[in-house]
Design brief:
It contains nine helices and nine strands. By secondary structure, the chain is α+β, with helices and mostly antiparallel strands. The chain folds into two domains: about 70 residues, Arc Repressor Mutant, subunit A, CATH 1.10.10.10; about 170 residues, GAF domain (Beta-Lactamase, 2-Layer Sandwich). The strands form two sheets. Strands 6-5-4-9-8-7 form a six-stranded antiparallel β-sheet, with helices on both faces. A hairpin with a 2-residue loop joins strand 2 and strand 3. Helix 5 runs antiparallel to helix 9 and helix 6 packs across helix 8. The longest helix is centred in the last third of the chain and has 23 residues. The protein is globular. The termini are far apart.
């Protein structure tokens, strides 16, 4: 007779370790790494290639990875379904859409709503403009918080120790030659953002792309951020300071008021 697993023995520990390893492989994929070879997975996880291949094949058989060519994998449809289910369980993105569409109408720019997840932001809603933009982003995309207007404005309004911890855990790599990666400069920028109430990103994610973001607050804590993406020069600073930034802040404030009425954030 097979005894029930008490959850405390060696078998249970092995099972938990397997789950952790499988999830750590899935978490490797993002916009900068849409597909990975087994060798790349091994280098990023520190596991040996045979172990990585076994995990990748198992995840492929379960539908969480797809093999696009010999020993090269990308997220499968089941992984996408999980992402959509996670986003669909939150009320704010759906209820925010009329406000995001109105901001798109007022500014003519692409509008985004994002949440903070660890050291990254996750895009949970987008309303596209008619302009071509140089950054390929979609709902569910992730970017490092330190390099984005959406991420920085949430970091700026977090308690200082929490923001410091997130920056400490972030790999501060330059995405463009304009990306701020010096911790002292980043902290100074967060103080400036908090003082003025919004963040401006100048070509740090993609050259020629500007972002203006404001926080969505529940009480005094950021739970999301809204921004506009502008793929054009702004020659007159008054357009940014007197027209665009106030519109973004106004939308964020409206969403903050809405968020205060929600039970399921």
């Amino acid at each position: 007779m097979v005894e029930a697993d008490s959850g405390k023995g060696p078998s249970s520990r092995r099972n938990i370790q397997s789950v952790v390893r499988a999830l750590s492989i899935l978490e490797l994929f993002n916009e900068r790494r849409p597909a990975l070879s087994v060798s790349e997975v091994a280098a990023l996880t520190g596991l040996n290639r045979a172990t990585c291949y076994r995990f990748c094949v198992t995840l492929r058989e379960l539908g969480y990875l797809e093999e696009i060519r010999d020993r090269r994998f990308r997220p499968g449809l089941k992984a996408l379904s999980l992402a959509h289910a996670a986003l669909g369980s939150r009320e704010l993105p759906e209820l925010a859409m009329p406000y995001l569409r109105e901001l798109r109408r007022e500014t003519g720019e692409t509008v985004n709503l994002a949440l903070l997840d660890g050291t990254e932001i996750v895009y949970v809603a987008r309303v596209l403009s008619d302009q071509l933009i140089s950054l390929r982003i979609y709902v569910g995309s992730r970017l490092p918080a330190y390099a984005t207007s959406l991420g920085r404005v949430m970091l700026a309004f977090l308690p200082a120790d929490e923001a410091h911890d997130i920056l400490e855990r972030s790999q501060l790599d330059p995405i463009t030659d304009k990306t701020i990666v010096d911790p002292r400069r980043l902290n100074a920028e967060l103080q400036r953002i908090r003082a003025r109430g919004y963040a401006v990103n100048e070509g740090e994610i993609a050259l020629g792309l500007r972002g203006i973001a404001a926080p969505v607050l529940a009480g005094d804590r950021p739970i999301a951020a809204v921004n506009i993406s502008i793929p054009r020069p702004i020659d007159d600073p008054r357009e940014l300071e007197e027209t665009l930034a106030p519109r973004v802040v106004e939308t964020a404030n409206a969403l903050s008021a809405l968020a205060g009425q929600l039970d399921n954030l």
